[in-house]
Amino acid sequence: MPQIQVLPDYVINQIAAGEVIERPASAVKELVENSLDAGATQIKVSVKKGGKDLIQISDNGRGIEPEDIEKSVLRHATSKLRDASDLFKLSTNGFRGEALSSIASISKLVIESRTNAAIGIRAEFDGGVLKNREEAAIPVGTSISVNDLFFNAPVRAEFLKSDSVENSRILDCIIRLAMANENARFEYRADNRLLFCAAEGSLQARISDCLGASVARNLKEVEWEEFGVRVWGFVSSPESLEAGKRNLPYIFLQKRPIYNALIAKAINQAYSSYGDYSPVAVIFLDMPLETFDVNVHPAKREVRFSRDSLVFQAVNHAIHNALQNAISYPSISIVNTLRENSPAYIAESKADEGMGYGVWGIENKTQELFPDNRIIPFEDPLNPKPQTPNPIPHTPECLQIDKSYIICEQGQSMLIIDQHRAHKSILYERALQALQKGESLDGQELLFPETVEVPAVLSPILEEQKSELEKFGFHIEPFGYNTWQLRGIPAHLPLGSAGPAIIRFLESASESKESDIFKKNALSYANSSAIQRGMELSPQEMKTIVLDLLSLPNPYETPKGEAIFMKMPVEDIKRKF
Ligand code: ADP
Ligand code: MG
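# magnesium ion complex -> structure
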């Protein structure tokens, strides 16, 4: 008996859906692209339950001809491509005719559309099969409702994250498309709450809507052409670089959002003289249509260039040129020299002079620093309490280098401590203990609440994390569009650092892969609220950090395993001379 048979269309569509529609955000991306291709200047997106229950997109584009409505959900049915040669010179977002058919095959779809004809059409599909079709009195444009996405693909549905994570992924897609189409107006609502809104305007105004006004203020303009590649957009000015902050670049080719590791690398490399940064970057590329191929993956996210190295160089040079007149950072680093020349001085771990991680090792270390073993009670470095009548007699003399490293004497050695990593570990340990005991950390209520602007992508995450943040002392309430009111902050945090700390917390919370929720939140809190490098500390603050650090179960490494300090025995210093 013959074994091979051709699959029925509905199965083929579901297979294609697996590639094109990974999650609600992929459906939104395809539908918004269709609206843009139809020349829409107003696009409204509204979702329910992270897009799983409902995704609705309405536009004021040119509409679908009545006789094309049923065809639009057929596979490889498109109005944008006529023959294979067109594949290499496309200027629309879509062209494979796969999106609507894929979405229709795994959902209950309603299309309402009107061209400039007097009356429009409303058509209902169930798993891709037409159920009802009627005339409808509607405005010119198209409105597509996707109900119960994945209703017949339960396995896919299982892989979806919480509603707020899906909402934020949808927002990320919308933001990428919005940045590339500043002449269209966008609106995005999740469960009836307005999460993003951008009026038509300049690219700079659009970046400000998408990434926040404070980010937009600190950008430098890029404009460059080389090897037939035009590179333009905006990147972080060197003064606004933030250590440790990983920004993903927004990259567009022919005004289409793409992901490309090579270009991301070209961007970061242009900043290498300032340190290891990944700046904010919104980069547009234009090049002749025959020099790249977007038809690599059904979701059209990946791109192949015919000459990778030329594209790399053009982007790299473009950014170098934009940064050229910028101030350059001072680079001291005794620490770096030590690291390079003598790797042995990097914070030794367990083998360190026979002292282990345990309490004994620590006591021993503390004793070395403070022979009479009197340890002061915890005092927050940024919020020192008034001196007690009985201050520590033998405190280490500390010196700060490059506003980033604390140097002090420990027994017969010199310690060089990374202030940020040390404080991060101290906060982590304290937060973890509090969470495990079901307690909250001390906060200070603000007499005059401050407002903080939170980038639109993070708003859904903030909503979800609000109560977690409260445990760390951040008392925060919604206060209008993308703005929150800060009513209380952690006791140790200076007011000006609270807003950025919340944003870092949310970024870290949405990226973290840690499965233990206590550890995950403690880590996000520590990462976000620890004093940064570049912050001047008073002698008392430095002492407190050193003491707190040495009383940790593991003072050598951060929770992520980064070395916190280096130790250089005086013997070795002598040898150096
Ligand atoms: P593609 O975009 O690759 O052509 P799709 O499956 O996304 O394929 O859409 C199929 C066709 O349906 C499009 O080619 C277009 O003609 C029509 N269409 C889809 N959405 C819209 C819309 N919002 N406005 C006008 N036409 C649309
Ligand atoms: Mg399409």
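# post-check
The mean pLDDT is 81.
The radius of gyration is 28 Å.
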